[in-house]
Amino acid sequence: MGTKGNDLPPNDSVGPRLLAVLVPLFAVALVLYAIRIWSRLRPKPRLTAADYMITVAVVAETIAIGFTIAAVSRGYGRHVWYISKDEASDIGAFTFVVFVIGLWASCFGRISVACLLLRITPWPRWKMLLWVIIGFQLAALIACDIVELIACRPIRAAWEPVPDSECFPVEDMWANAYVFISIAMFSDAIFALLPMVIIWRLNRSVVERTLITILLALGLLAVGAGIFKIKVLKGYNITAEDNAVDQIPGYMWARLEEILIIVGACAPLLKSPIEGFLHRKFGLPLFRPVVRDLNSVHSLSSTVNVRRMKFGKNQECSHGTEQSREHETWRPGTSSISTEHVGSRPMTDPNIERWDDIGLVLIHDFISAADEAAMIAAFHAADPRTGGRKRLSQHFGYHFDYTTFGASDTRFTPLPPYIANLLPRLPVQEYLPDQFTVQYYPPGAGIPPHVDTHSMFSEALYSLSFGSAVPMAFKKSGANDARKMRLPKRSLLASDSEPQPPSADEPSGPSDQPAPPHPSPASPASQQQPAGGTEQREAEDEELPSWELLLPARSLLLMTGASRYGYTHGIKGRKTDVVGGQTVPREGRYSITMRTTRRGSDIGCTCSFPGVCDARVREEQAAVARDAGIPWACSRR
Ligand SMILES: O=C(O)CCC(=O)C(=O)O
Ligand SMILES: [Fe+2]
Description:
This is Fe2OG dioxygenase domain-containing protein. Pfam families: 2OG-FeII_Oxy_2 (PF13532), Fung_rhodopsin (PF20684). Keywords: Membrane, Transmembrane, Transmembrane helix. It comes from Lasiosphaeria ovina. The protein has helices spanning about 15-40, 50-75, 85-120, 125-150, 170-200, 205-215, 220-235, 245, 250-265, 270-280, 295, 320-325, 370-380, 415-420, 480-485, 535-540, 560-565, 615-625; strands at about 150-155, 165, 350-355, 360-365, 390-400, 405-415, 435-440, 445-450, 460-465, 470-475, 545-550, 555-560, 565-570, 575-580, 580-585, 590-595. It is of the alpha+beta class. It folds into two domains: about 10-270, Rhopdopsin 7-helix transmembrane proteins; about 295-520 and about 535-625, Jelly Rolls, CATH 2.60.120. The strands form four sheets. Strands 3-4-12-9-16-7-5-6 form an eight-stranded antiparallel β-sheet. Strands 8-13-10-11 form a four-stranded antiparallel β-sheet. A two-stranded antiparallel ribbon has the order 1-2. β14 and β15 form a beta hairpin. It is elongated and about 110 Å long. Fe (ii) ion binds near residues 450, 452 and 569. The site of fe (ii) ion has 3 residues, from loops.
């Protein structure tokens, strides 16, 4: 020993202080992890790759902390002169395990964050980057652990003196560590940056976005710990006699980094539990979209007394089976819709027509003639075709996905100014559309009757009409529509590039339906669930209320509640329409359909119109198949 007698430092240990920092923080990480997994398992299991990855990280860190405690109990943290040979050997072996396994905790923690970001990132380039990061993390983990394990022959020489052993040169081991640290820092920087970019583009309330950002920012603490680790490692002398004690600060920062990665990865998932807690304890509203009074946002209505528009309880697409069962009593024709209310105008503003009982609002002159001309020019600058017979579509924001009737996760086209400028003026401001389909309907083109997918899009749907007027046909959904939902293929395809199958629902010829709408009350027969076969169902569906509503050029239609969930809408493919008793030839008509996508656990629907809810239909099909013993793979949730 080089240091003798009085020169020896006192026989104390920094080990307990090391544990005093690491153990409580690790306990916090475990609690966060438990809450995360708990919230992902209830009401029904929704574990994703990110959850499995973080579980690997937590198991690895549990082992690392366990071996750290074992090492401290054998004297890790004491000066070398007060440790026996056996203790030194144990400490060396235990901390060796921690170095090898600790890498798993940090790597799988980062991979878990990457999996989470992959789910919410719409941009393919960022997705690619995330996959590259996952690849690098795995490669670095494997390479680092292999180097650690083969560095010394025999392996024991890595932590205790062994005669005639051979180890890699110290410089090579440092190079290995620096490569790993660089990859880690790069990944952490991306993880810190990317969520900010994504979250602030989501159509969520500012409060919600701020909460998610703060929670995600916790991950930045791990970056800080990584920087400290590098700092102390730089000053570390591996050949110093008392190097086990000198190692402790670097050891502590390395474990802190691992634990903070786990904390950072779990924290954003706590949004829902925190939201629920704030709601229960302090009565704060849930982060749910709320519908604003048209008066307060729309200049056209600023001087009139518009009835406040809210989603009634039986119109809201809410979560919870109990509530949805309760709503199953809803039948076409039994709501408070009657000719008394429908078609009347409860306000004096001639620009706004509304049918509150079915949640339908039509705002006339929503855009100016100059805006209309600019929109038409913008559409044809991108697609000059006007002579065809088929509907043409252009997609902005998340593209409409004609295979799922939802929105693409990956295809996103930034909004042109003419669409972006509409957003602040939309009546429902609490959530804004992020899926836009601009369509051109040449004379004779239409769109089959359909209910926009319940599970994939939020309640409010918009259709902005321009170019010319067209009657939109509404019909209460009946058993026949429910039957159609069960067919494997439905199609709204229409553009030349996306051929539209012929639809029996699109007869040509003049309309004999007047506008504005006057749906007749349903006959008692239609209020019963039909018991007979297809023909009987179709016959009964014929009796359901239907009407056509003329959508004038420059008007904005807002569908919510029953008109959104419980009615089909469509445009008959005709060359002429009867408007006010006059036969009017159709002209080219344009529309912008605006929808808000549901993502992740928001997908799915237990709303008041289960008969035509696509999510419910899939669940039913899966249940039937399960009961019949047929393996069924389809479940969107
Ligand atoms: O063109 C319209 O106004 C409506 C289009 C529509 O219903 C749809 O794309 O789902
Ligand atoms: Fe639609």
